[in-house]
Amino acid sequence: MAFYLAIKEFWRARGRFLLFSLVIALITMLVLLVAALGTGLADANRQFIDKLDADLLVVQEDNDLVLTTSRLDRQTLNGVRRINGVEAAGLIAFSNGSVLLPAGSEAEDIDVSLVGIEPGQLGAPELLAGQPLRDRYADQVLLDERLAADLAVSIGDRITLRTVQGAEQESFELTVSGITEERAYFFAPSVYLPLYTWEKVRPQAVGGGDGQPIGNLIVVTLTDPSQTELISARVLELVDGVEVADKETLVRAQPGYTAQQTTVEAQRGFALVIGVLVVGGFFQIQTLQKLPQIGMLKAIGIANRTVALSTLAQIVIVTAVGVALGTAVTLLMALGIPPVVPLRFTPPNMLAAIAALMLIGPIGGMVSVRLAVRIEPLSAIAQGK
Amino acid sequence: MTAALNVEQVTKIYGHGSAALRAVDSVSLAIQPGEFVALVGPSGSGKTTLLAMLAALLTPSEGRILIDGDDLSRMSEKERTVFRGRKIGFTFQANNLLPFLTALENVELMLRLNGGLDAEGKLRARALLERLGLGDRLNNLPSQLSGGQQQRVAIARALVHNPAVVLADEPTASLDTERAFQVVETFASLIHEQGRAGIMVTHDLRMVKYVDRVIHMVDGVIRDEVRIPQAIETLAKTSSFEAARSEAEAQQVSIPTFAARAPALVASGA
């Protein structure tokens, strides 16, 4: 009975209900885009760290776990390697540069992360194609697959890296040895260089640095990953000037990350609250318009439960149609969004957003359901008297 | 023969203490199946309050109401709702029909409500609407029907589930005179044919032409109860209880059988 009434009314007033579903669809798009932006931004920030093969991450002490200003030398690395229970450790160094496009290309140079690694050691990425870097001094690079696609280069091609050293712009020509999976480090795609080559190429005050390379991060794997706490304590005790963190802690400590995610979360929250208010308002007005009709229904013997269920069923239908429509349009739009826009649609974040959106209908509609239930059947004969 | 509707010393008091108002004061009446009664009186006379109590929408402060032998005061709120759907048929002054259901669907609603719509029920709903002259309007929405047609759909809905009691609240309020007469005439003949106890609240005394009894309420009590056909006819023509009273007295003298069957005119209360 409740569904009969709900569906009949929905169908006969489908124009009005669909218009409202459209509003919900727009809210859905907003919420999904904000959710995707949240994931996209988070990914761009944390992708590199997330994908590292590591049980522990070691950075410089008294530096608030900030990667860019962390300084670790090879002695520290060796100190970590010697600790009982550490399976492997590797030094990673980060800096920025750009990749020059071939002459005649209209596009601007691409900003990249220059990642120094030790070939064959922990920290070297897995290859999708090609060969690993030959040795610590090789004039070779590994490219992030997205960067390789953007540059339209393949294995064996040469690329030109440019950095600022002193007051000069220096260019370095290197051979692409292999392609790795996509790993952006703080929004910039990664170019991997052997640690000593990296030391030459990286931006620095005076060109051609020949000292020992200084890294930012030591990645550590353990023989028994369940002993994280014990080994952490040992590292802190036996190695001078370091701090130990897990991936999540390190990501959250990077400047801007938490602030950015909080902002995005707040936007999503507001969009949902607006959704609740809009649904609530619409159904409240609709119920107010139907007061005499609902009074009549109750007078002729239709139970309160039926009236409430019917109202609720309509709210759920309208919300579901709107959310389905909004999701479909968002997914279609997503196909056309350029890859540089940090929007990432993943099943978990979309499902969470859709679940939240499906809830805004019933929550917003509560007030009108309550109103409908409270209408006195007596009003059917008391009206106009 | 047991009455379809029994009202025993029913009183409704609003407020309490010195501000208490006896909207309906010790009213008793019985209505037989197949009897059509008009409930008339000025506004504030208590007729709407009485109707609401008969409709199981309002609980009497004192006394009791029995429909088909069932005591309304012994029912819970939920039971009364179910009871209304099964035993009472309604037509209201306005907002009678669901705007999103067709004429036929509006009538069938009462059958759906009472345990499902079967083939027999569908036929009955259709036949009733045809009997009311709406055979070509079955699938029209209320917005496509005139006021009189809507009122006739409401009458079909009030009768389709074979209720014991049919209550009509100002069924002619929004109709012109000619349509009003048509509607009440059809209503009356269906109540007689189907043997329902019909009660119509109206302020238009011309409409009492088709009823079997007129109950005149004033200040919460029954002032007059007119049963004699000639008196009712006079009342419908003149809208005057004075004229009806003298007509009744005349009839009592000339046709004593009326007097023997029932008191022609009861002046009671105030």
Outline the structure in words.
The complex is a heterodimer of chains A (385) and B (270). In chain A, strands 2-3-8-5-7-6 form a six-stranded mixed beta barrel. The model of chain A has no long low-confidence stretch (mean pLDDT 88). Chain A has 385 residues and is of the alpha+beta class. The two termini of chain A are 31 Å apart. In chain A, helix 1 crosses helix 10, helix 2 packs antiparallel against helix 8 and helix 2 runs antiparallel to helix 11. Chain A has twelve helices and ten strands. Chain A folds into two domains: 170 residues, no CATH class; 178 residues, no CATH class. In chain B, 39% of the residues lie in helices and 22% in strands. Chain B has a six-stranded mixed beta sheet, sandwiched between helices. A four-stranded antiparallel beta sheet of chain B has the order 2-1-4-5, covered by helices on one side. In chain B, strand 4 and strand 5 form a beta hairpin. In chain B, 48% of the residues are buried.
Topology:
The complex is a heterodimer of chains A (385) and B (270).
Chain A: H1 2-12, H2 14-51, E1 56-60, H3 74-81, E2 86-100, E3 110-117, E4 127-130, E5 140-144, H4 145-151, E6 158-165, E7 168-180, E8 190-194, H5 195-201, E9 217-222, H6 228-238, E10 242-245, H7 247-253, H8 257-289, H9 291-299, H10 304-336, H11 347-374, H12 379-382
Parallel strand pairs in A: 3-8, 5-7
Antiparallel strand pairs in A: 1-9, 1-10, 2-3, 2-6, 2-9, 4-7, 5-8, 6-7
Chain B: E1 5-14, E2 21-31, E3 36-40, H1 47-54, E4 62-67, E5 70-71, H2 77-87, E6 88-91, H3 103-113, H4 119-131, H5 147-159, E7 165-169, H6 177-194, E8 197-201, E9 213-218, E10 221-226, H7 229-238, H8 241-254, H9 256-261
Parallel strand pairs in B: 3-8, 3-9, 6-7, 7-8
Antiparallel strand pairs in B: 1-2, 1-4, 4-5, 9-10
Helix pairs in contact in B: 3-4, 3-5, 5-6, 7-8
